[in-house]
């Protein structure tokens, strides 16, 4: 379960939010309606970051499961969002 809380709500209700994450929920902290942080339980944190290899292990499991999928560079490039608002510049 994902719950949203503003920074002010989080400040005023921290004990309640901690109980919520201990029960398995995630709390997304927002500022002006945009998520800026996530409050998770220590147990979940350890699951995600144990030995620093959780992401790598997830990628390897995905590759084992879907390794037979052949993708070419052109197909992957076609997935890019090329809308004008998505432009990028170093300037």
UniProtKB/TrEMBL annotation:
Task: Enumerate the Pfam families for this protein.
Answer: PhdYeFM_antitox
Signal peptide span: none
Please give the Gene3D superfamilies that the UniProt record associates with this protein. Answer: YefM-like domain
Function, please? Answer: Antitoxin component of a type II toxin-antitoxin (TA) system.
Q: What is stated as this protein's family in its record?
A: Belongs to the phD/YefM antitoxin family.
The protein, known as: Antitoxin
